[in-house]
Amino acid sequence: MYRCAHNCNNFCRKSYKLPDLIMKHDKNPERLLNHNNLLRALKPAEKDLLLPYMAPYPLRKGEALYEPGDDVQYAYFPCNTALISFMVMLADARAVETALIGREGAVGGIVSHGHLPAFCRAEVRFPGLAVRIASRDLEQAKNAFPSISNLFTRYADCLISQVFQAVACNATHTIEQRLAKWFLAAITRTDDHDIPITQEQLASMLGVGRSYVARVMAGFKTNGSISTHRGHMIVNNPDRLREMSCGCNALVHDHFDTVLRGIYPADT
Fold this sequence. Notes:
The protein is α+β, with helices and mostly antiparallel strands. The protein has 2 domains: 20-170, Jelly Rolls (Sandwich), CATH 2.60.120.10; 174-245, Winged helix-like DNA-binding domain superfamily/Winged helix DNA-binding domain (Arc Repressor Mutant, subunit A). Helix content is 44%, strand content 19%. Strands 2-6-4-5 form a 4-stranded antiparallel sheet. Helix 5 (135-144) packs across helix 6 and helix 8 crosses helix 9 (210-222). The longest helix is centred in the middle third of the chain and has 27 residues, at 146-172. The protein is globular and about 55 Å long.
């Protein structure tokens, strides 16, 4: 296993630069698509069609893949521990997260026809690797193989269910429930309990004041669910978080399993 200079056991997130060893390893065409669950679900002939147009893309923490109004020229498929947030920009300049995308999905208009403007910001939450393909090339592949279009359309349905559930969650559940849900969603998608995020970033994503997040996080630390260290939050007790969380993650997971069984990562 690759071990960075910081002596990390998993992929190092302390640098925005993707390690050369990881890049070299993942340039193998067959492995490239297998790091993303959605791409892994493609049939061999579909993979053969897409592979010449796909390439590894290093995702850097905080990078905006596109902003509202941008022409969406590429689709990105996060791999392994990489996470991308859909952030809706508000009139007062705040940005609120509406969906979290990991190795179960993609961002970038995978079901749209032709170039369309982005509605929200797609921001890298956890750095890592993505597979990138130009929108025009993906469009040609969907025309050649309707089954590819069908797979991505079903994923779009799952993504919409996540956004719908987020709207209901934000309106009805407590900050404690929402924070617990977010931590569980993050570790499920990454298989890593070390989360590089601050209280200020959490407050911004949830659209609440930092003082509210600070009070909830103090409770999490007191009951042993979470510990913090220099801009990182470590999930120590997922079961305790599940007790405090709402049931929104489970509902989204169930819908994924109905529409695209095996795509959504299992709970850690």
